[in-house]
Automatic annotation (TrEMBL), chains A, B:
Protein name in UniProt: TetR/AcrR family transcriptional regulator
Recorded superkingdom: Bacteria
Residue range(s) of DNA binding per entry: 30-49
A Pfam family: TetR_C_24
Keyword annotations from UniProtKB, A to Z: DNA-binding, Transcription, Transcription regulation
Taxonomic source organism: Hymenobacter persicinus
Domain HTH tetR-type: start-end pairs: 7-67
Keyword Protein biosynthesis set for record: no
InterPro entries per UniProt: Homeodomain-like_sf, HTH-type_TetR-like_transc_reg, HTH_TetR, KstR2_TetR_C, Tet_transcr_reg_TetR-rel_C_sf
Alphabetized GO MF terms: DNA-binding transcription factor activity; transcription cis-regulatory region binding
Length: 193, 193
């Protein structure tokens, strides 16, 4: 029980840290700011977390680990390449809707990771992009996808969904499901009829 | 002749400022850095430019004015809606390839504009987005485009091309024309065959 409370507090610290980093940047957020946000003295936060650097590290690798483990699962399915790519787009959109602050931090503040973690994070991102690109390449080879440049397709897709994290919230007049369906239509079938 | 030299120097200052702002951010760039980059004393730069704020303003409004005047031209043509939207995507890609640093500054550093300029810039951007969205809406009504949510289509397109400014350079193994053609295929016809 005591452990569960401790874990909950740790998660609360991480969640609030992600929101603060997103709003004010990693450099613009102090442990004091974070303490005020979660209602704890900076000193007692250190019972749950070692440093601001560690918080950034946990958030960034939580996001990259999610992408990489999901990619590995998707690669192993027997689905068509179109469906595999749809599953990856679904993953990006869902993660932005459900965990937008963490995704924003992993997209924008990863450069403040300490040197060894920075290298590991860049390598993880590169591996993910390679895996995603390989699915596109195989889909083109299988005749399922348009014969476009693989890097162009990869970065257009990754970039195309990024605005969701900044824009989407309840009250936009569109459900998460409709949003996702619309983006799938645009990226897989195109805007033109 | 003296005037031409002066204008050239002014343009050089603006071009180098855009590159520095892109690399180090508006806040991270001093007039001294800029002077070193263009090979002029900070004091003599003030013969060409009033302030760092003014430089930012000129760069941001150069970009927004380009978008807005091109949109007005495109709106007046008799082309199909598909072709009008292709013309806008062409404009975004070209501006990123030919004037990438300025586009980057207008995308990322606009928030450092002084209060009245900031409002004017946000209004200009809103007007541009409204005009772009109206073309999508009319294209859907005319049956030329997929019946997707207009905001989703607008932001997906605007976001989808943003990576070009960060990625594209000669030596990527793809010409600017091929890059553009590939992105058009993806956004208008989709990745799936």
């Amino acid at each position: 029980m005591a452990k569960k409370v401790k874990n909950n507090k740790r998660q609360l610290i991480l969640d609030e840290a992600a929101k603060l980093f997103k709003a004010k940047g990693f450099g613009g957020t102090s442990m004091r700011d974070l303490g005020a946000q979660v209602g704890m003295e900076a000193a007692s936060m250190y019972n749950h977390i070692n440093s601001k650097d560690e918080i950034l590290e946990i958030i960034c690798f939580h996001v990259s680990d999610t992408y990489i483990s999901q990619l590995a699962q998707i690669e192993q399915t027997q689905a068509s390449y179109v469906d595999k790519i749809k599953a990856l787009i679904h993953l990006h959109i869902r993660l932005m809707i459900e965990d937008g602050a963490a995704v924003s931090v992993a997209n924008n503040d990863w450069k403040y990771l300490t040197a060894d973690k920075l290298e590991a994070f860049k390598q993880a991102r590169k591996n993910y992009e390679k895996g995603f690109a390989a699915l596109i390449e195989q889909g083109i080879a299988a005749g399922e996808l348009q014969p476009v440049n693989t890097s162009v397709a990869l970065f257009t897709i990754l970039s195309a969904v990024r605005w969701v994290e900044l824009w989407y919230r309840p009250g936009r007049g569109i459900t998460a499901e409709e949003l996702e369906e619309n983006i799938m239509t645009l990226l897989l079938n195109g805007l033109a009829k």
